[in-house]
Amino acid sequence: MNPPTSKKTRPASRPSDHGRIVAEPSSCLDTLQLERLEREFKTWADGTPRADVALSRKRILLIFLLIRHTGAKLHEVLTLNPVRDVDHGALTVAFGRDAQDAEARTVPLAENVSREIRALLDDEAFLRSAGQTLSVDPAFVRRKFYERAQACGFPKQMGSPEAIRKSRGVELMQSNMPLPAVQKYLGHSTPNLTSSYVSFSEEDIRAVTSTFLQRESARKTSARNAFFGRVDRILPADLQAVVELVTPGGHTLSSIITLDSLKRMGLKAGRLATIEVKAPWVHLYRSEAEPLCSAENRFLGRIVRLTRGRINTECVLSIDAETELCTIGTNESIDRLGLREGTAAWAVFGAYSTILRVD
Question: Rounded to two decimals, what is the model's pTM?
């Protein structure tokens, strides 16, 4: 694959913009589309009662996760020994260790992806079926990738291993990872280092990449009331604006910010952003029916964890398979509501109670 390029680049005289690109929307999947495709793979892998089919699907899922989160080539992944070559302690993946005509390279791995891979490998039946390498017929892998892309409503070629690898490279560059780090991450042998990066050693670039991946992973989590997604629409008024954000899971959130903040952050429809809300600002209603209240953000879920202190109780509400909301209330209020693990409840918070940020 060629290095990701763009039709538009910012002026070279602005060093703070090194490594930023604007890709053609039709040439690859964006971050939310990649997230949607990843959820589709996971749902598909768990969606069969047959043990043998489940093992086969999990192997395809593992191949997808490695390409999606390391930008590796398909042949690199298919010759990988996942037990030996994935170092969960160092959070790295070593590709090409057994190749005779290629140099081995080590790629940083985000901690949450390492956990998912380890969970797959902890399954003894899966580990026995996977063998020493992930050797699978490439044509079979491509066919399954095409099917999952089409299940998401994407053109099948957008789900090819090469398209996903390209999408990952573009995603990282659009998120401001330095160009040399992206090139090393994708395994390009002769990166075109600009003068401002010539002094970066291999170790420096690896450290930059690792730091970026961990930050990216933390940004995308919905734990502790941080919702990552795309700005869907902006409704400006005379002094303030309502910003609506749609998450990969399909939740819509509203945040109210000043027009000055809107301009300063350069917000517009389609931009990726995060809405945060502090736990004490989230209020709970014990009800299956939607509460009649003025809070713009309302989510139905179930209590999955209660941690009681001397005065307050921390309550964690699961609103979907990947998203949790945390709230803190007094012990008296939690007791009055009769909240227990498994109880259905609504979590609500106003648009003024949110913090909106962009990277």
Answer: 0.61
